[in-house]
Amino acid sequence: MNAHGPFQKHIAGHGNREKRGAEVAAILIINRVLEKAASIPHRTLRALAAHVGAIWYRLDRKHRDVAMRNLEMAWGKELTEAEKEAICRKVFVNLSTVMLELPYLLTLTRENLGRFITFSGVEHLENAQSKGKGVLVLASHFGNWELMSLAFSIRHQPIKVVVRPLDNHILDAIINTLRSRGGNELIPKKGSVRQILRHLRRNQVVALLADQNVDWYDGVFVPFFNEIACTNKAMAVLALRTGAPVVPVYNYRQEDGRYATVFEPEIPIIRTADTTGDIEENAACFNRVIEGFIRRYPEQWLWLHMRWKTRPYQLWPRQSLKGQRWLVIRPQIRSLEA
């Protein structure tokens, strides 16, 4: 990977010439470290990740508390405290593994990707694309999502992926270069709707990670596990507006360390005369699908994210919501319907 080539386009425009030079130097150093790390055997990496994850869990009280609060919100009395804590510990190990596997993205090829990942259910995506309206892929921060998208582009076809730029643009340049190695095109989340519509009209595949909290004006409040969650409405609005099929996908780490990527059948879209209600119902349906993935392999989801951060009472600070567990709020949707 050449920092003066692929990375250059990601850091252009950040600061003056001296600052950009320092950034390129930093990227070259990080790139060299990644290249060296890519030679570490997978078995050794997994053992290292177990130790790193255990230390991270003990030292990072902030994210440990976030994960435990999320687990409590999601599972309630379905699991004991000991069971939630056991999942939490595994979450830190899983994320440590994902981060330590990052260098492998440098060496992934069509010939060797079978050592890291397998695919099943791809026919569901192909059948959806044969309709000629493009495809919306419902993805989430599950398993090793970065490996999944890159491997799919190498093994099958490049896709379009909606991403939120990282706050640190040096890391953003590195990650985005790895993401696009197989030909994937990255769409910045802000102002992405027009680009998504254009790609769907061209019958292309667009993936959105729809499992994270959003501000109230970008979402709808619908159930996720045992609580309502402010859920991104973009997938539902786009599916209703364009008729593009929605195909869910997830990947999970198996006992041998390889990832299994599973495409599931197209999700039927609810379509009535009530557009706002349809958006809510479809967003809730997408949440149920993602929840199903998580219930199968709870330790492999990103529990460190504050999924229930945006709460309904923020719209009406003086109104008590005591007892209104399933309150649904209908914010304006003009930004995506126009």
- Main beta sheet: 7 strands, mixed
Structural class: alpha/beta
How much helical structure, as a percent, in the residues? 40-55%
Which architecture name of one domain does CATH use? 3-Layer(aba) Sandwich
Number of strands: 9
Secondary-structure element pattern, one letter each: HHHHHHEHEHEHEHEEEHEEHH
- What is the CATH fold-level name of one domain? Glycerol-3-phosphate (1)-acyltransferase
Radius of gyration of CA atoms, rounded to a whole number: 20 Å
Number of discrete helical segments: 13
The unreliable regions are: 1-8, 316-338
Mean pLDDT: 87
Shape: globular
Cα-to-Cα separation, first versus last residue: 41 Å
Q: Give the strand line-up of the largest sheet.
A: 1-9-8-2-5-3-4
| CATH top level class name of one domain | Alpha Beta
Portion in beta strands: 5-15%
